[in-house]
Amino acid sequence: MTVIDNKTQDTLLEYLTLYYSALNSGDLELLSSIMTEESYLITLDSFGFKRAFGDKNFKQLLKDMHDDKLSLEKVENVLREDISKESKESKIDIIRYESNGSSRITLHYNEDVHPKKLYFSNSSGKWEIDYKAGRKKG
Known about the structure:
Elements: H1 6-25, H2 28-33, H3 37-54, H4 56-64, H5 69-85, E1 92-99, E2 104-111, E3 114-123, E4 126-129
Antiparallel strand pairs: 1-2, 2-3, 3-4
């Protein structure tokens, strides 16, 4: 198993803190800057699901945002407020860092005593939250 150095651990902890801060404030620019594009769109999809269930126009925007920047901007404008309204303070306790190869790490932590994982990948020397980094290679 690869040892994860203190600098990397500090970076991932900082990103975890930024992740929750961005979610609590509805700061989607910050959120998009610390995530892979695909993970960011998955996050928007999950937050937009409830709204899309009752709003056919918004449902179409969610679908289109993957290929259309204007639709993405409209989704972000709507969800920014929705996300900040659902904010809550969470107590975060780091459990461990798990290496999944040279460029993927799983951060195990508790959010208000509930076990959670956040996946990271490193491409071009920059760590990013990457939901798909938890998948097995192959």
